[in-house]
Design a protein that fits this description.
The complex is a heterodimer of chains A (327) and B (335). Chain A is an alpha/beta fold and 327 residues long. Helix content of chain A is 33%, strand content 24%. Chain A has 12 helices and 12 strands. In chain A, helix 8 links the parallel strand 7 and strand 8. Chain B has 335 residues and is α/β, with parallel strands linked by helices. Chain B has a domain of 88 residues. An 8-stranded mixed β-sheet of chain B has the order 6-7-8-3-9-10-12-11, with helices on both faces. In chain B, strands 2-1-4-5 form a 4-stranded antiparallel β-sheet. The model of chain B has no long low-confidence stretch (mean pLDDT 89). The chains are: A alpha/beta (327), B alpha/beta (335).
Chain lengths: 327, 335
């Protein structure tokens, strides 16, 4: 059985124009020890999915309308707030994009990591502190004993993100959700953080859900990926297979619109592939049509009249496109 | 590059005063330290580097938005840094800036047509009718509809706002446009639209770009030559093909190897050059090579002697003691 199974999840946000499904009929599973990546532009529902898994949807505005999130057989959509608090940090934890704003500026990072251990594992003050120092060492911050007493502002961006990772991994969670963990960091630091996440995964067997917009990061980190568009899954499958042969025009666009570095650079620089337009507004989410139709080069009348069905291909690749076979 | 370059910068330094010592002693942080580069007309020079490397400060100094401490910057024949008063105003017409954040760089209280017209109001002496015509043409050139001129910035998406920023930069028909991380705040699909637009405009108006970015993929796509900065210094400078296919400075190699690629999915850390740790404290720079503390091939000598740029061929130079020696082979890229 998979570690995490999400079935027909639908999340609704109430806006001034009524309720909009920010996640519309999303199903996927995550195996133990696997890295799964969510890709897409901003406003496509990647972070909402993560917040739903954590039970952290914005109160009174967002709610799970239907579907199930089964973690180790337990349905999180029906769990009590107390039970969710127990799971958060212990079994599922999260690292965020901006390490500066997600750390508390008035506590040292050692205290912040120790707090997690005391709350979830009931360690004594001293035991929690000692363990925190070990964790700081595990995420390769030099001089862990001394740095545990530092405040977030005394650290560089990369070190802050390492401290976040140490905090997230404090209770050896089964799932680590990383929401754009390196977007605010420089590339050399990003490479260090990726190496660290990969090593920690190998040591602890934690599954990782990596949310990103960078196809290169996906290629480097994940085994499987889900491409999200306007709250719906556009494509799902093994990373290598999708990058080599994407079946959804949006995935193809995402891959080819970025100027990638190649092993050997040549003189020619063709125009970048353009996906015209922008992501539709929340108002248009949930319509019974392909939401990508207005930006798609392969659009037909069929796309505008009904939501495309899931089409399965070998190797577990699934694309939600009327014309997936022809791609 | 026989004819005079449009922009020529020599030995530029920019320093900031950081604190007064107890006895009126001043101390300075050199954000840009003895930097030289040239941009031929109609071409694009990319400046890459990590945050804090001084790439934006160098560009701001060229645009006279921060005072330079030392050095010379010439636009054609004219000295940029010594201009004052009316001469400076005339010069500003010829150098314009596209900013990183399309949200904070547009005045929220102005209609976008007025935002685009503002440089014309303050820097040119054109008549109202001429200005109107120029604004209309610019909206068309950057791909916005004429009826959108009356809207306010909040009514636009990020990509459209960046188009407005570009239109504003083009208003005075500048020769040099400085793009400071012009696409890094945008989503990838929108980024492609803006990059294509910038290249089309360059061909159409014969623009020269100084293109500042941390994204090596974008720089590779946009630039004819590239300067790599580290801690205020240019460590390597070359034409596009030499820099990406035959990088000579260990830092450039590390930077290139750190970029995740889509070529070989599922095979990470191929030839990755690891540079441990963080850059040195800019307030207290070590003697010798600034990269020595993180460099995989550093020898004791490196932290004593400062490396000077060494030429490799006509269009390529790198500031490392071990340029062209076997030492570099130890850090990969030897395909």
């Amino acid at each position: 059985m998979a570690l995490l199974e999400v079935e027909n999840l639908r999340i609704e946000l109430s806006t001034r124009d009524g309720t909009a499904p920010v996640i519309d009929d999303l199903s996927f599973h995550l195996d133990a020890g696997e890295t799964l990546s969510f890709v897409g532009e901003s406003g496509c529902g990647k972070s909402m999915t993560a917040l739903a898994l954590m039970g952290l949807l914005p109160e009174r505005i967002g709610r799970i309308a239907s579907g199930a999130i089964r973690f180790d057989g337990e349905d999180l959509t029906k769990a009590s707030p107390a039970r969710l608090r127990e799971i958060r940090g212990n079994d599922i934890s999260m690292i965020f994009q901006e390490p500066m704003t997600s750390l508390n500026p008035v506590f040292t990072i050692g205290e912040q990591i120790a707090e997690v251990l005391r709350a979830h594992q009931g360690l004594s003050r001293q035991a929690a502190w000692d363990h925190a120092v070990e964790l700081i060492d595990a995420v390769r911050i030099p001089n862990p004993k001394g740095r545990a007493g530092d405040y977030p502002f005394q650290m560089s961006g990369g070190q802050r993100q390492r401290a976040m990772i140490a905090m997230a991994l404090a209770c050896k969670p089964k799932i680590l959700i990383a929401d754009e963990p390196t977007t605010a960091l420089d590339v050399t630091v990003q490479a260090q953080i990726f190496d660290l996440l990969r090593d920690l995964r190998a040591q602890t067997g934690t599954s990782i859900i990596l949310i990103t917009h960078d196809m290169g990061a996906v290629a480097e980190m994940a085994e499987r990926m889900i491409v999200m568009y306007a709250g719906r899954k556009a494509e799902l499958g093994p990373v290598a297979q999708i990058i080599n042969h994407a079946r959804h025009p949006y995935t193809q666009g995402l891959i080819s619109c970025v100027p990638h570095l190649h092993d050997v650079l040549t003189e020619d620089r063709p125009e970048l592939f353009e996906v015209p337009g922008i992501v539709p507004s929340l108002r248009d989410f949930g319509r019974d049509e392909c939401l990508f139709a207005s930006r798609c080069a392969h659009v037909t009348d069929q796309c505008r009249s009904a939501r495309p069905p899931e089409k399965s291909f070998e190797g577990g690749q699934i694309a939600d496109c009327w014309h997936a076979e022809a791609m | 590059m026989t004819d005079t370059p449009l922009l020529s910068v020599e030995n530029l330094s920019v320093r900031f005063e950081i604190k007064r010592g107890g006895w009126g002693k001043k101390s300075y942080l050199y954000a840009v330290d003895d930097v030289s580069f040239q941009v031929p007309k109609g071409q694009t020079l990319g400046i890459v580097g990590e945050s804090g490397s001084g790439k934006t400060t160098a560009a701001l100094a060229v645009a006279r938005l921060v005072p330079a401490h030392q050095g010379v910057a010439r636009l054609g024949e004219d000295d940029i840094l010594s201009k004052e008063g009316e001469d400076l105003r005339r010069m500003r017409r010829r150098v314009q800036f596209i900013f990183q954040d399309p949200y904070s760089s547009l005045n929220p209280r102005k209609r976008v047509a007025d935002i685009v017209r503002e440089p014309l109001d303050s820097l040119s002496d054109k008549s109202e009718a001429e200005k109107k015509k120029i604004v209309d043409d610019l909206f068309e050139a950057v791909g916005l509809r004429p009826e959108q001129q009356r809207l306010f910035p909040h009514q636009f998406s990020g990509g459209q706002r960046q188009r407005i920023g570009i239109a504003r930069a083009l208003a005075t028909q500048p020769e040099l446009i400085i793009c400071d991380e012009a696409v890094s705040a945008l989503d990838v699909a929108v980024q492609a639209q803006i990059l294509n637009l910038l290249r089309r405009l360059q061909a159409q108006f014969g623009l020269t770009y100084l293109f500042i970015s941390h994204d090596l993929g974008v720089v590779q796509h946009m630039c004819d030559s590239i300067a790599v900065m580290y801690m205020g210094k240019i460590v390597e400078q070359a034409d596009r093909l030499s820099l990406f296919n035959n990088p000579q400075h260990p830092y450039t190699r590390a930077l290139l190897s750190a970029v995740p690629r889509v070529d070989h999915p599922g095979q990470p850390s191929r030839n990755r050059v690891l540079i441990p740790g963080d850059p040195p404290d800019p307030n207290n720079l070590p003697p010798g090579c600034r990269f020595a503390s993180r460099c995989p091939i550093a020898k004791p000598d490196c932290s004593q002697r400062e490396p000077l740029p060494q030429s490799i061929g006509t269009t390529h130079s790198a500031a490392c003691h071990y340029v062209g020696t076997d030492a570099l082979d130890a850090i990969g890229m030897a395909d």
